[in-house]
Write a structure and sequence with these properties.
Two copies of one chain form a homodimer. With about 220 residues, the first copy, chain A, is of the alpha/beta class. Chain A has two domains: about 110 residues, Rossmann fold (3-Layer(aba) Sandwich); about 90 residues, Winged helix-like DNA-binding domain superfamily/Winged helix DNA-binding domain (Arc Repressor Mutant, subunit A), CATH 1.10.10.10. Chain A is built from eight helices and twelve strands. In chain A, the strands form three sheets. In chain A, strands 2-1-3-4-5 form a five-stranded parallel sheet, with helices on both faces. A four-stranded antiparallel sheet of chain A has the order 6-7-8-9, with helices on one face. In chain A, helix 6 crosses helix 8. Chains A and B meet through helix 4 and helix 5 of A and helix 4 and helix 5 of B. Chain A binds a DNA duplex (30 and 30 nucleotides) through helix 8.
Chain lengths: ~220, ~220
DNA sequence: CAAAATTTTAATAATTTCTTAACTATTTTC
DNA sequence: GAAAATAGTTAAGAAATTATTAAAATTTTG
């Protein structure tokens, strides 16, 4: 049973999509604005997001930047190549223009659920001796349990997800902003310091590396 | 460096795609029929397939069914919803209709390569044994990792980008001024000296050549 | 609602990088 | 070949970035 979040302010289009998905036995969740979408994203884990771009308050583009681990299909009236390219490069997985064909939408949804199956967020994240459990915000280090706070968990998760790449501080702040509203660069440094200290209590190995002037990454 | 197999019988379209991909530093492989594609698929492992549907002998649809573990972008003149749905459900990851927009194709290629293996959204710069990774400001010299500072990275990047041309000191200062505000000629000399020393620690080869009275270039 | 846990703020310390400047080396010009 | 101009090296301290710490503010929990 796959959970799909529909983010669309036009109530008619929203209902059409919702019905379509329910017929296919997907579990649907409904957001009618960008802000509502962000709230729902905090609460639950979804397998896919169907996202309109022109939303009240927070735009779809901003949501794309904040989501990292859930496939996104943009469904927009904006038909320009520029809009498509921007969204796809920002992190969207597919872009469908309105008016859309129901069968094509369903097929493209299946593609996303099929290909993204392997790297699902509900499963535990692993890297070397680190094992991150999504449910209760705990980190296992060589089977030693380390309790993390919500923010610490969010940071470590993004670092592991993006491994071996470096994440810039701004990007990282973007990605964790779903969980933590007003965390700035200074605050981020404190969280990372605390995270390192917690890990340091159990091992000599340094897992988080600072890249001077850029951001952070998981040490190889 | 990603390997992309282009399967397209129309020689003009084929060439357009090939050029486009080569400009983006992808390694391209060319098949002009379905049977040729199958032969190439046996020989080598590709990161992505760009597939036309209407091919002589074996159709694109049949190829989709035979490929399992390589992402496929269908590029077809067939615009019907039915064709799209069939291909996507059969295993294709994306479907673009002709005539296509170059930038959109490139963006959708990046999406496929990104989801497959989360790395390499930005391209690495290469020259001879030098390999410059944009993300973490590191230089690889024969696979030996050399950490560069932001300014050193900026300088080397410009030198490699403009290779084999000579860059005047003023031009170089201009080009790196985004990253370094108040770097003058003297300071530049120091940076280049430090850069040379870092490289000298690992190899006898001199990579940066001074052109007396003018500026610098990468040695051929 | 009070205690506990978490997050942010802010001040200080530590580290890295950059520039300055003095000195040395090389090339060009006369 | 000497003087002048340009280039290279080095070290010190200035500037910028990152790390740590503790206390205040906020949120969560019982």
């Amino acid at each position: 049973m796959k959970k799909i979040l529909i983010v669309e302010d036009d109530i008619n289009i929203h209902n059409v999509i919702e019905e379509l998905l329910k017929k296919e036995n997907y579990i649907t969740y409904n957001a009618y604005s960008g802000t509502e979408a962000l709230l729902l994203l905090e609460k639950e884990k979804y397998d896919l997001i169907i996202l309109d771009l022109m939303l009240p308050a927070i735009s779809g583009e901003e949501i794309i930047k904040k989501v990292n681990d859930i496939p996104i299909i943009v469904l927009s009236a904006k038909i320009s190549s520029e809009d498509k390219v921007n969204c796809l490069l920002a992190g969207a997985n597919d872009y469908i223009t309105k008016p859309f064909d129901s069968k094509e939408l369903l097929a493209r949804i299946k593609v996303q659920l099929r290909t993204k199956n392997k790297s699902n967020t509900s499963t535990t994240l692993k890297y070397k001796d680190l094992e991150l459990l999504p449910d209760n915000h705990t980190l296992f280090l060589n089977n030693i349990k380390i309790g993390l706070t919500k923010t610490e968990y969010a940071i470590l998760k993004q670092l592991i997800l993006n491994q071996p790449q470096v994440i810039t501080k701004n990007k990282l702040l973007d990605l964790i902003s779903i969980d933590t509203e007003d965390c700035d660069e200074n605050s981020l440094r404190v969280h990372i310091s605390n995270l390192r200290k917690k890990i340091r209590d159990y091992t000599e190995v340094e897992y988080i590396e600072s890249i001077w002037g850029i951001g952070f990454k998981i040490k190889e």
